[in-house]
Amino acid sequence: MSGDRKVTIVEVGPRDGLQNEKGIVPTADKLNLIRLLADAGLSRIEVTAFVSPKWVPQMADHDAVMRQAPRSARLVRSVLVPNEKGAEAAIAAGADELAVFTSASESFASKNVNCTIAESMQRFIAVVRIAKAHGLPVRGYVSCAVDCPYEGAIAPGAVAAVSSALRDLGCYEIALADTIGRGSPDRVDLMLQHVLERIPASMLACHFHDTSKRALENVDVALMRKITTFDSSAGGLGGCPYAPGAAGNVATGAIVSHLHKCGYSTGIDPVGLLIAEDFALGLRATAR
Ligand code: HMG
Ligand code: MG
Questions:
Q1: Which residue ranges make up each domain of the chain?
Q2: Measured between alpha carbons, how far is residue 32 from residues 22, 38, 151, 160, 275 in Å?
Q3: pLDDT for the residue 288
């Protein structure tokens, strides 16, 4: 935990990791994973998704997970929500933060949330209104910030436009997602350059899936551009049911160890994290 430059890790394993497993992980195991991650010092954990159980049955127990997830003053428990229905249920269950998600690719938006990008933004107006009424912050994801599984390469200008629209709606942080994890450092850098023309680095996070095993290089590119918030998943679990062929997020253990070696502090205890990652990998083995 050395280093005086601070990086924030957003643990998305209980949501991004477990949504993509074939089997359904029991609620009690999800709660144990969240507890182990919190014990290891993760201060932001995306615990579940209030999405339609018909679309993602792996997250159907969202209400039980949210209501029983460990609570502490130093932990922010966020959840993914696609619409007003999800926002209301998440807040009733005790969420600390909401995360809306759209895409820089029309095809991916259509497959993932069954609407256009503009329609998804329209839905978020109500989400942000409800969140603000309850004093909750809203994060916004931009999927396909580099490539789309259906359209291929995405223009960096399109990513910048969707990111600005989310910021204008009231999102305090925009997470730029390499959904299929095939972004090369030069293409990630170009995308970031375009987004940073409109949004400061302090409002950005990067969410790298690691299909091509270049996520840590992409983290370095983002750090060079002064972005200091990164998503990762315990054990490198993850993927999106609507992004065929995508691997999991960069593993939390891998990014934390990389950052510590480079002199950044994360507040995460590597030994506690090892225990949480072992547990996550065990869940993957049993869910298959
Ligand atoms: P739809 O079928 O177009 O909408 O789905 P609908 O309004 O007709 O609703 C269909 C049914 O779902 C209805 O139930 C609704 O009540 C129910 P029925 O009347 O048929 O019994 N419903 C809900 N249930 C629970 N919670 C809700 C909710 N909303 C409606 N919030 C919808 C539209 C957006 C709901 C659907 O497409 C959906 O849930 N999609 C989510 C897909 C998803 O979760 N994908 C994975 C997460 S995103 C991701 O992984 C990317 C990310 O990691 C970044 C990256 O890597 O790129 C974030
Ligand atoms: Mg993802």
A1: 8-286
A2: 19, 10, 38, 38, 11
A3: 67
229 forms beta bridges with 8
**pLDDT value of position 145:** 98
C-alpha span between 207 and 6 (Å, rounded): 18
* Ligand 1 first shell, C-beta below 6 A: 16, 19, 49-52, 54-56, 80, 82-83, 85-86, 101, 112-114, 141, 143, 177, 179, 207, 209, 240, 242
Report domain 8-286's class.
alpha beta
Q: Which element (helix H / strand E) includes 132? A: helix 117-133
pLDDT (tens digit per residue) in 203-218: 999 999 999 999 999 9
Q: Please give the radius of gyration of the chain, using alpha carbons only, rounded to the nearest integer.
A: 17
Q: Which among 262, 162, 176, 251 is positioned nearest to 215, based on CA atoms?
A: 251
Tell me, in angstroms, the distance from the centre of ligand 2 to residue 178's CA. 8
**What whole-number distance in Å separates Cα of residue 66 and Cα of residue 92?**
9
Largest CA distance in the chain: 46
